[in-house]
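Repro:
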Amino acid sequence: MIDVPAEYHKAGTDARRIIMSMLECDKPVIAKVNGAAVGLGATLALFCDVIFAHESAKFGDPHVSVGFVAGDGGAVIWPQLIGYARAKEYLMTGDLIPAPDAARMGLINHVVPAAELDARVDEFVDRLHAGARQAIRWTKASVNIGLKQLASSILDASLGYELLTNYTEDHREAVAAFRSKRKPVFNKAS
């Protein structure tokens, strides 16, 4: 989006709409992660109601590695799941977290062997289908009240900051480095 910055506005609006729609959806949303969940992919998985991952999956938000603010929801959901200190560490470094570690710290719910992932998710979904649907829906709605309020305010700020970083020298350097297949050298003066 560095070549056509106006495209960023649409992407930010779309990310916000997806996240708020997930929070408004009255049915449980289950994530089944069978690989790397990175950036917006990680954010969307983490906004799901229950998250299953196979043992070799990884989670991360490496926006900073391309000179971007973690603006598409990472600043909302990571602190809620693993606390502010850990969230800031992972959001400011962009480090990936292996699924077993992600489960231990509360970032995700379940880690299962790859061969069992589909069956475990299907079993859980069947359990919810057999449950009291209105009670499940309204429990989700109740739990999400505070999260929707946080998401609404934090997304406005973080998407705005992410938009600003789209115009920074550090982001231009990250894009140039990617195109040249080299590591970026960020401006130490900014």
